[in-house]
Amino acid sequence: MSTLEIRDLHVTVGDAEGTTEILKGVDLTVSSGETHAIMGPNGSGKSTLAYSIAGHPKYTVTGGTVTLDGADVLAMTVDERARAGLFLAMQYPVEVPGVSVSNFLRTAATAVRGEAPKLRTWVKEVNTSMAELEMDKAFADRSVNEGFSGGEKKRHEILQLELLQPKIAILDETDSGLDVDALRVVSAGVNRAREGGIGTLLITHYTRILNYIHPDFVHVFFDGRIAESGGPELAQKLETEGYHRFGVNETASA
């Protein structure tokens, strides 16, 4: 059993002209096998939470703690956080020209596992996961995300999730830009990870993906903090009522 604990997290972003506080005291606990959906309007701080946990240098933590199984995540470098068991699926995956998907995946697995996976076993793992995600084997020879469609990039993110087997996965708007077929396939991959015991922090703007991935907990993010928490019924309430009662003119419907 692994647990990610976030306590009173404050985060700022800025430059020489000044800083702005984005996260204003976030408290959240995610344990193995749990799925927590973070919902909220644009600009509420959802992605800032994801990137702050992952260690993006753009964001400065000014207060609070983040621990994984008692270890201080904020004291770790980005690669140390990954090896400790944290995974981030990005909303906008970057292209890495000249680096093949197969080399990227095996190098990442070697770094996380501490040793290179045996080639025969590894090839079977990759082929099985690619088949489940309905990815053509030819993708293994292409450069990472180069020329990929939005759906292909998101499938590749979930392929990494399945192969790297982290303790806690943070999915930053993985549903954005997906058509119905891609959403179904990607969601099935997330559900397989959950069944394997991975804790999931699912950040989304809409309720559409929650028709495929059923969360244990739903948290409404507003103005840099969690404004309300509940079960799956809270997502349905947002579907019908939107975010009006939190002070914004925006609905949660797709």
Overview of the structural elements:
- The protein has helices at 46-54, 78-84, 101-113, 119-132, 150-164, 180-195, 232-241, and strands at residues 3-15, 18-31, 35-39, 59-68, 71-72, 86-89, 96-100, 143-144, 168-172, 199-204, 217-222, 225-230.
- With 254 residues, the chain is an alpha/beta fold.
- The strands form three sheets. Strands 6-9-10-3-11-12 form a six-stranded mixed beta sheet, with helices on both faces. A four-stranded antiparallel beta sheet has the order 2-1-4-5.
- β4 (59-68) and β5 (71-72) form a beta hairpin.
- α5 (150-164) runs parallel beside α6 (180-195).
- The longest helix is centred in the C-terminal third of the chain and has 16 residues, at 180-195.
Q: What is the mean pLDDT?
A: 92
Elements, N to C (H/E): EEEHEEHEEHHEHEHEEEH
Characterize the main sheet: 6 strands, mixed
Structural class: alpha/beta
Number of helices: 7
Principal-axis shape: globular
The strands making up the biggest β-sheet line up spatially as 6-9-10-3-11-12
Helix content: 25-40%
- Unreliable stretches: none
Total E-strand runs: 12
Radius of gyration: 18 Å
Strand content: 25-35%
Spatial gap, N to C terminus: 35 Å
